[in-house]
Structures are given as C-alpha cells and as structure tokens.
Amino acid sequence: MPIAINLDALLRERGMTLTELSERVGLTLANLSILKTGKAKAVRFSTLETLCRVLECQPGDILGFSEEE
C-alpha cells in the first residue's frame, strides 16, 4: 500500500509506548496496532486529530505517501 503509517518513529522520538499512546488517545491497543502496522482500511479525522494532539505533530508526520510499494 502506498500510504505509510509512521507511528513507530514518532513513538520512539517521544519515548512513548503504544500502550501509553492507547491510554492517552482512548483507543484500544488492538486498534492502534492495526493502524501502526498499516492494516487499517480507514482512519477517522477525529482519531487523526487526537493522535496529533497527543503526539504534538501534524497529520503528515503520521501519514506518508510513496508510489513505490
């Protein structure tokens, strides 16, 4: 898929675990894991907004695009 999810890098930069992010954004660990691994079919804008608030980043820091798979 040409859309890349960069949660691993953001979490590393912030010294945060996926479990901690899950607690802060109010999403289950399973749902965040699906998003992190790129298996999610969609992301709600409200979820993206919450992730950006908690991670103090822009949507483009979370999502990336590459024509090469």
TrEMBL record:
InterPro entries found in the cross-reference section: Cro/C1-type_HTH, Lambda_DNA-bd_dom_sf
PROSITE patterns attached to this UniProt entry: HTH_CROC1
Domain HTH cro/C1-type: 7-62
Protein name listed in UniProt: Helix-turn-helix transcriptional regulator
Species, as recorded: Gluconobacter cerevisiae
